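User: Please run a holo structure prediction.
Assistant: Happy to. Please share the sequence and the ligand.
User: Here you go; the ligand is phosphoenolpyruvate.
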Amino acid sequence: MAAQDPTTSTTTTGRRPFFCGNWKLFGTLAESTTLATEVRNGVATLRDVDVAVAPSFTAIHAVAKRLEDGPVAVAAQDCFWEDKGAFTGEVAPGQLADAGCRYVIVGHSERRQLMGELDAAVNLKARAALRAGLQPIVCVGETLAERDAGETLGRVQAQLDAALAGMAPADVARCLIAYEPVWAIGTGRNATPAQAEEVHRFIRARVAAQFPGEAAALRILYGGSVKPDNIRALMAEDDVDGGLVGGASLTAESFVRIVKEGSRPW
Ligand code: PEP
């Protein structure tokens, strides 16, 4: 995200930094609304940055109410691909929009790995989210074995192509991509800025090949043990436009520091 306009945190590319806290399976209603309030207060004076938080399903509505009319948006951590029907236990994108979500994370590696979610399901979910007016945050990323085998770009390409299959350019314009190397999630081990940039640049080029009008504005987030002390170096890379933050988003103090560090001009 280099080439900053010195008067704002928006870059000359026009891509506003975006930071989303993924609260995973944490938080009672009281804890979630308190954390949301603290995040809202912490980022209240910031300009030229987009901020979202992704609570558990049960807390989405309460958090959305708490954040209403403020600068922090609400994301869901997953959705189903059908709009309604006999699908016990699932949550439709339209229901998430109704509860106050603007974004939904799809294809998170924890879902791919622990729940067996396949590329085709990620595509269905992303397209269902778009139908409901949500903006999908599509996660891609390689495992450590894939990286060690030199398969990083091939794996990311396959996940990306599958996720965007069947989308129109206007759909892609509403998506965000999160590059999250699986070996860096929740491990304390993050990709170096150069490793992140290599994949982010590859993602943008791959999107440009299919959607030439949309790639330049596409926001590509990095995720994987993002912390207040490493976000700045990551954001200094041309194609890193923000962060999807897990563990470090569970306290407002560290998440707000990440947002501030990652969005201030340099
Ligand atoms: C995530 O949940 O998307 C994530 C990147 O987690 P962490 O920041 O804890 O690695």
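The two ends are 10 Å apart (CA to CA).
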